[in-house]
Hints:
Layout: E1 2-5, E2 12-15, E3 18-21, E4 24-27, H1 32-37, E5 46-52, E6 58-64, E7 72-78, E8 80-87, E9 98-104, E10 110-113, E11 117-123, E12 128-134, E13 143-145, H2 166-169
Pfam families: dTDP_sugar_isom (PF00908)
EC number: 5.1.3.13
Subunit structure: Homodimer.
Amino acid sequence: MRVIETELPGVLLIEPDVYRDERGWFIESYSYKAFKQFGIDIVFVQDNHSYSKKRWTLRGIHFQNNPMAQSKLVRCTRGKILDVVVDLRKGSPTYKKWIMVELSEDNKRMLFIPKGFGHAFLTLTDDVEVQYKVDEYYSKEYDRSIRWNDPEISIDWPVKDPILSEKDRNAPFLKDSDCNFIYRGEIP
């Protein structure tokens, strides 16, 4: 397994070892022991699985406010996506900065996203499945979104008119959000 630090401290790109033979392939997609060696010492409590029928479907920017904030381990198991992470911690040196990483069934990469960050993804193919682990249960009360095309964040999406849910279409801009993440000098 190879772990690559990104421009956002605490956000890690993970490339698992892939064992291939004439039958196909095998990866170890999660091991508490292995992840702990790379500083990911959390307990995941819920697995989520989403399916998007059409290319250019955009989901996000999503997060849960404190005290129900979630760390996520995201992977694309069918198709291909652009996965986006945004630092939403007020006072952080990388506040409002974002990264974009391609995750696909072919590259088998995963992205670890700590608490304090927003998450979104755009499908690059039809029939996309994304699976992710979280370390806090879903909470409707603390569930939040920020508008996908917020000018303060300025994500460089490769599509101008994505397929959106009503929730994402009507999400507030960051300036109108009640996002409660505060940077306290720590690396997540």
